[in-house]
């Protein structure tokens, strides 16, 4: 793995241990606020609504809203908020424009399931904001910002965040995406981060999509920091993820 490249991904690494304690505390407080989801993962999942396992496919959610824009919320990091580009060039915004979504992009720089973002938030914080919007679709992504976090704490926090989201929004379609890396080969350390989200998605009846790495081998589509896509790269990413979302779920 390119240590310099990984280092750029972990620019907030000095705050990782702080995030481990504070981030988990914020998550638990958020869970209480939006669904009363606290305690061990087993206790949390025992209270999931029965509708979670029978959530409708994305296509049916969109078609059922014919004549009315679906309310969609994006939860994620700087890749999702289009860091370094204009707000309307972020990939969730591009997909929303194509599909006539009423989209709110809550993503923020530096945030993750455990990692505190530049605004002092985690994905749990974004979940609280998302719930207040009562969306019909929620898109949430794993993040390389969580590299370097304690594996057990990250796994638990990812599950708790997803359970809190499902508990508060039992009828919403939740789409969970694997983490974006860039134009180079992702480090092996990214695999368990994706696996945590995949397991949580399966538990709460969300759809998990492995987006692959659509910009692999395309340094021309990356900004100078070699972390964030250019506007053109975001457009390519939007097209790839939109196609993934529109494709029938595996096994259907």
Strand order of the largest sheet: 2-1-3-4-5
The protein's oligomeric status is single chain
Q: Shape, please? A: globular
Residue fraction in strands: 5-15%
In short:
With 252 residues, the protein is an alpha/beta fold. It contains ten helices and five strands; from the N terminus they run ααααβααβαβαβαβα.
Notes on the structure:
By secondary structure, the protein is α/β, with parallel strands linked by helices. The protein has one domain: SGNH hydrolase (Rossmann fold), CATH 3.40.50. It has 10 helices and 5 strands; from the N terminus they run H-H-H-H-E-H-H-E-H-E-H-E-H-E-H. The protein has helices spanning 3-9, 16-34, 41-45, 58-64, 78-81, 91-99, 123-132, 151-168, 190-204, 231-246; strands spanning 71-75, 102-105, 137-141, 173-177, 207-209. Strands 2-1-3-4-5 form a 5-stranded parallel beta sheet, sandwiched between helices. Helix 8 runs parallel beside helix 9 (190-204). Residues 11-38 and 51-57 have low confidence and may be disordered.
